[in-house]
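Q: what sequence does this backbone want?
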């Protein structure tokens, strides 16, 4: 257990497998968390458990949250998604329960012997060194694992870079690194060896530097909140303040140098978007949506499926091309997915964490809590959020210790977690195999791998429909071209039933029908896309063009007006379509 718990946490932040895994920055982490929680349950030794009031409340609130997640899954309209999670973060029932199990186990483990905290922090903090380095070198244009186009936005001197490192997105990276900055300070405070202390300070400083380069305003606000917490508690040491000033001086020097051009562009972008993008309207629409199922919620990981019909016209007009995968607030996420019981449990746990917060780890908890008001949990950030809480609630004088024996019923919990890990890993590996086979030009092997992946419940039909189409267009052999086209068409036809963004899958399918000159099927797909996402401008716009070509000018003009209304005059070509139809 001394290495299992911190090892799982370290791998959850560090592990990416770009070649062997299809969702290489998500699935490996989820599999590690699921497998680690199963091993923690199956640990055969007797477990001493502290019986402080704080620890009892922690266990009770975690149990209530687990119950809320279970109820939300039972009443979900999309049971498979709620069980294993959506493709963007895989935070379904099994994964969330696994995080809670690891949190309680860590609290038990640390409370019975506080001497375990230092090695625990060493593993979880110092393994962040390569993560922070990776984020920094991504900012400066070096990336050996993934194409930089995925996190570069804009053009010329207005281009910004949002390095994701191993966490999938700059926001998740920065939120995770908040733990590293403050927990690193706690570790440096306890280290007696100069080499260990130097490495810890370097890791903490690099983490702070990477947070700034990520351009994540929520994390910077969290960093400030954590520092203010230590100031108010009179726990900010002068060495930390001096180190922070040195770091600020280095950042200021970079900012005015040629290397700080993208950082200056990020500041410019932020100044033009002072209200946090779509968040205010998104939060309002989420609250309205949650009123429909306030008690049980819509189920874990169902937001992408359920939100489009609830999206307001105002949000669509302001951000017509945005894809909203979550409410970008952990409390609203809990409310809309788990209902009021899940919201109350999470709020109570956050309150318990704030009450027990002290020292640098308390600063880490406060910093992450503030940052997560503007972003969603992913499994790594959720795990570190709960680990902070586990460290805090375990740091109380233990009045009495109760010994719990390992019991066979723990198999009942461990077995489905292990099976979920295998289920996700097998499908993901097969999808990655299909991608590699397409890269080699072996279409038939790719199709066989995709068929095997579907048997494991894994699919990426929109992606592979486009890959097969590209292969068909590039093939010189007529037979190969026809087979690749057929595979592309089959994948596109399946996508509306397998993709979580159904409206996008239907739009993709309409494009394939257009290549077959099947106007009836194109119109049907576009109308289905409108039904799935009524306030998305694009299917209205395309349907207007289809209706105009088919000789229905009045209907075409109505759809074009609907597209202009939903686009908010962001795209000139949409307004131009309406003007052309009116002239006709």
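A:
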């Amino acid at each position: 257990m001394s290495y299992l718990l911190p090892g799982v946490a370290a791998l959850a932040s560090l592990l990416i497998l770009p070649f062997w895994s299809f969702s290489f920055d998500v699935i490996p982490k989820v599999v590690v968390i699921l497998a680690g929680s199963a091993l923690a349950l199956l640990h055969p030794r007797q477990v001493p458990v502290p019986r402080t009031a704080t620890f009892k409340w922690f266990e009770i609130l975690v149990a209530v949250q687990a119950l809320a997640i279970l109820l939300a899954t039972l009443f979900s309209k999309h049971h498979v998604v709620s069980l294993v999670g959506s493709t963007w973060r895989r935070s379904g029932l099994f994964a969330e329960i696994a995080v809670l199990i690891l949190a309680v186990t860590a609290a038990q483990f640390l409370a019975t012997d506080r001497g375990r905290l230092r090695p625990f922090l060493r593993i979880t903090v110092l393994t962040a060194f390569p993560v922070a380095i990776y984020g920094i070198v991504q900012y400066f244009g070096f990336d050996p694992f993934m194409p930089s186009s995925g996190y570069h936005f804009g053009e010329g001197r207005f281009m910004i870079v949002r390095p994701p490192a191993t966490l999938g997105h700059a926001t998740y990276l920065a939120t995770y690194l908040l733990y590293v900055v403050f927990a690193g300070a706690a570790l440096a405070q306890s280290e007696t060896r100069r080499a260990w202390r130097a490495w810890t300070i370097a890791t903490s400083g690099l983490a702070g530097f990477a947070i700034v380069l990520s351009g994540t305003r929520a994390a910077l606000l969290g960093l400030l909140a954590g520092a203010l917490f230590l100031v108010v508690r009179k726990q900010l040491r002068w060495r930390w303040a001096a180190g922070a000033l040195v770091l600020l001086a280095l950042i200021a020097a970079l900012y005015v140098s040629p290397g700080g051009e993208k950082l200056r562009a990020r500041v410019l972008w932020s100044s033009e978007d002072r209200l946090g993008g779509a968040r205010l309207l998104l939060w309002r629409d989420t609250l309205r949506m949650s009123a429909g199922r306030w008690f049980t919620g819509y189920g874990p990981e169902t937001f992408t499926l359920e939100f489009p019909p609830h999206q307001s016209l105002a949000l669509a007009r302001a951000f017509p091309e945005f894809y909203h995968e979550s409410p970008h607030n952990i409390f609203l996420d809990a409310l809309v997915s788990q209902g009021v019981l899940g919201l109350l449990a999470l709020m109570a746990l956050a309150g318990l964490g704030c009450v027990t917060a002290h020292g640098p780890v308390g600063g880490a908890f406060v910093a992450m809590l503030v940052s997560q008001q503007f972003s969603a949990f992913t499994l790594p950030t959720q795990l570190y959020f709960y680990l902070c809480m586990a460290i805090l609630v375990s740091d109380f004088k233990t009045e009495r210790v109760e010994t719990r024996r390992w019991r066979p019923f723990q198999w009942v919990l461990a077995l489905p977690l292990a099976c979920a890990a295998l289920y996700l890993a097998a499908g993901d590996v097969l999808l990655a195999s299909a991608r590699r086979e397409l890269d080699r030009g072996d279409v038939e092997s790719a199709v066989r791998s995709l068929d095997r992946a579907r048997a494991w419940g894994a699919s990426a039909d929109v992606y592979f429909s486009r890959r097969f189409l590209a292969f068909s267009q590039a093939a010189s052999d007529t037979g190969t071209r026809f087979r690749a086209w057929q595979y592309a068409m089959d994948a596109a036809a399946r996508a509306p039933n397998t993709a979580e963004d159904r409206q996008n899958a239907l739009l993709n399918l309409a494009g394939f029908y257009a290549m077959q000159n099947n106007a009836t099927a194109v119109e049907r797909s576009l109308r289905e896309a409108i039904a799935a996402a009524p306030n998305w401008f694009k299917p209205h716009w395309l349907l207007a063009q289809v209706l105009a070509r088919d000789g229905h000018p009045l209907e075409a003009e109505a759809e074009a007006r609907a597209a202009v209304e939903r686009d908010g005059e962001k795209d000139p070509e949409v307004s131009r379509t309406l003007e052309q139809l009116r002239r006709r």
